[in-house]
């Protein structure tokens, strides 16, 4: 069996499962945020439930529109706070206490290897970076889990992405995942589990791995995951958390394997309005930008801030450009302050904001006006994603975003890399 | 379930949930007010087009993007009774079934349907007919519990009736 098959078998108390089979699984962790959460709570009550199945298995994390940008948004958070209190949910991360949900689940060790993590957010697949089977759901599904602790799954077949070589900066795992999406398309892994493996992956940090699994959903995948290894074990040792490690069998049946060599990969960029319109950055050089965003669940981690700072340090961003920085969590924010990164970013002209999803989905803290262009480290560039329907979003790595902020146009980061 | 009969509104591939309902409206769970904005980023005349039509026929990867259940909810509230697509983004598919909105996979949708064709969908018989052309369209299998949830009218009713999974 593949890793995802093993996790689904374990969680449904079966000896084995195979693709296509329907299984009902015990859920190890359910995550709600303040946008999909209120609807889930409403449906939970409609279903006639009074008490959540196990409060310690639920995490409520505010991240989408924080701090509240308007009264409606403030009311949603107020309603969720009251639910949290009423249900005795201790894993609650309010404004200033946590950060972007997908970061928190991994950073705090809530998402564990071999477990099933469900979140009322499509990028829940990010937690697959530590070997969890992590999927996004809608509010009604989340409500049913709140009440029963269970969810049905159709066992997906697994597509293996094998990345050889070593990823060398300023190329990062973002360039790798964009390359994969460019090759297989935005629906190339529809309903599948995508397992990333190979030499390049084993050398990656947990953070770099999260960028890969985060974008599994942008290929249509049910989840993305990476077998736990030494890097994973060290992560949980540092958190004093014990883990159970499952890995794919050597003779596991994969639907197909896609191989690529990271040494051959150039800085990549996804052009509007689809994540699979992937090109080499050098072929788009010169396109004018108005805003640059460094952050999101895809690329708001310490290593992302470090690589961007290395490019920006001692320089000023272009006078026409706004550079927005959202560290993915308060912990990352604090580390970035301690390391002196924030000072250097501010000196370069960046606006450093709090951890939030806000600008990535055009909710707050960096919405685009008509015809404006943003280059962003986030994961989606649909029509109107970050604001007006005539605005445009290009998706790229932290290095490419930083280099482009300096010149005011799309720029290959290797120009600023010594 | 009673068969659904209606005219086709045709859409292409990769219709995303930001197109269906932009995120900046999601600070409200009042679906009727959200429905005012259905598909506005994609086609400001969408609501007008939908007036005479009940069935969306689309291509690949319908509903890709965010997990927001508000997307199928606003389509349903705007009068859509069924979506037939070559395939769906999985979260959107589950969300549709969970709120009792028919979502069916069918091959070659672009050649099997024209805008305005009259279509009949019978879930009990697992049958889709293009009445205008007089042809029967083969549809993908609906596994359990999908079929039972759909027949119950959504997950709330399904779970209430059954009490558990």
Per DSSP E runs of 2 or more residues, the count of β-strands of chain B stands at: 7
Mean pLDDT of chain B: 95
Detail the poorly predicted runs of chain B: none
Query: Could you say which overall geometry of chain A the principal axes of the C-alpha atoms support?
Result: globular
CATH superfamily of chain B: Aconitase, domain 4
Strand content of chain A: 15-25%
Task: Give the termini distance of chain A in whole angstroms.
Answer: 45 Å
Molecular structure report:
The complex is a heterodimer of chains A (418) and B (165). Chain A has 14 helices and 18 strands. Chain A has 418 residues and is α/β, with parallel strands linked by helices. Chain A folds into two domains: 3-13 and 20-260, 2-Layer Sandwich (Aconitase, domain 3); 269-416, Aconitase, domain 3 (2-Layer Sandwich), CATH 3.30.499.10. The longest helix of chain A has 17 residues, at 71-87. The radius of gyration of chain A is 20 Å and the shape is globular. Chain A starts with a helix and ends in an 11-residue tail after the last helix. In chain A, 59% of the residues are buried. Chain B has a single domain (4-162), classed as Aconitase, domain 4, CATH 3.20.19.10. Chain B is built from eight helices and seven strands. The two termini of chain B are 22 Å apart. The model of chain B has no long low-confidence stretch (mean pLDDT 95). The interface between A and B is large, with 51 and 42 residues.
Keywords:
heterodimer, A: 418 residues, alpha/beta, Aconitase, domain 3, 18 strands, B: 165 residues, Aconitase, domain 4, globular
């Amino acid at each position: 069996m593949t890793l995802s098959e093993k996790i689904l078998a374990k969680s449904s108390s079966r000896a084995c499962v195979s693709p296509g089979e329907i299984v009902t699984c015990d859920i190890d962790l359910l995550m709600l945020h303040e946008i999909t959460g209120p609807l889930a709570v409403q449906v939970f009550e409609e279903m006639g439930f009074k008490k959540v199945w196990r409060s310690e298995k639920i995490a409520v994390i505010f991240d989408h529109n924080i701090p509240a940008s308007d009264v409606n948004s403030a009311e949603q958070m107020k309603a969720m706070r009251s639910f949290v209190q009423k249900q005795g949910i201790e894993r609650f991360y309010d404004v200033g206490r946590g950060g972007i949900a997908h970061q928190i689940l991994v950073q705090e060790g809530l998402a564990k290897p071999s477990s099933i993590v469900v979140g009322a957010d499509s990028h829940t697949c990010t937690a697959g970076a530590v070997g969890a089977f992590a999927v996004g759901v809608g509010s009604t599904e989340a409500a049913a889990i709140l009440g029963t602790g269970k969810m049905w799954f159709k066992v997906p077949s697994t597509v293996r992405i094998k990345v050889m070589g070593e990823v060398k900066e300023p190329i990062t795992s973002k360039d790798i995942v964009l390359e994969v999406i460019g090759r297989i398309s935005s629906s190339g892994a529809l309903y599948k589990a995508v397992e990333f493996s190979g030499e390049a992956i084993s050398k990656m940090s947990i953070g770099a791995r999260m960028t890969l699994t985060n974008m599994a959903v942008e290929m249509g995948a049910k989840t993305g995951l990476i077998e736990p290894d030494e890097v994973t074990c060290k992560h949980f040792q540092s958190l004093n958390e014990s883990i159970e490690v499952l890995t794919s069998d050597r003779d596991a049946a994969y639907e197909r394997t896609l191989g690529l060599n990271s040494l051959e990969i150039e800085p990549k960029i996804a052009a509007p309005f689809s994540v699979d319109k992937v090109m080499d950055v050098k072929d788009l050089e010169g396109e004018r930008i108005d805003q640059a965003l460094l952050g999101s669940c895809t690329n708001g981690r310490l290593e992302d801030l470090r690589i961007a700072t290395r490019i920006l340090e001692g320089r000023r961003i272009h006078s026409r450009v706004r550079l927005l920085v959202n560290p993915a969590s308060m912990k990352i924010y604090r580390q970035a302050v301690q390391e002196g990164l924030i000072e250097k970013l501010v000196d370069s002209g960046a606006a450093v904001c709090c951890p939030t999803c806000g600008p990535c989905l055009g909710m707050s803290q960096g919405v685009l006006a008509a015809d404006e262009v943003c280059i962003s480290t986030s994961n989606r560039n649909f029509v109107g994603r970050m604001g007006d329907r005539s605005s445009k979003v290009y998706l790229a790595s932290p290095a490419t975003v930083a280099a482009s902020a300096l010149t005011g146009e799309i720029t290959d980061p290797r120009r600023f890399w010594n | 379930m009673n068969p659904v009969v209606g005219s086709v509104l045709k859409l292409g591939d990769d219709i995303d949930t930001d197109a269906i309902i932009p995120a900046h409206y999601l600070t409200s769970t009042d679906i009727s007010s959200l429905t005012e904005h259905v598909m506005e980023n994609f086609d400001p005349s969408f609501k007008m087009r939908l007036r005479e039509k009940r069935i969306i026929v689309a291509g690949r990867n319908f509903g890709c993007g965010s997990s927001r259940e508000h997307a199928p909810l606003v389509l349903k509230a705007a009068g859509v009774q069924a979506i037939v697509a070559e395939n769906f983004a999985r979260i959107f598919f589950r969300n549709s079934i969970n709120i009792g909105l028919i979502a069916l996979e069918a091959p070659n949708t672009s050649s099997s349907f024209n805008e305005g064709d009259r279509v009949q969908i019978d879930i009990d018989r697992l049958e889709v007919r293009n009445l205008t052309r007089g042809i029967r369209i083969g549809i993908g299998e609906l596994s359990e519990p999908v079929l039972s949830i759909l027949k119950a009218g959504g997950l709330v009713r399904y779970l209430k009736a059954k009490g558990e999974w």
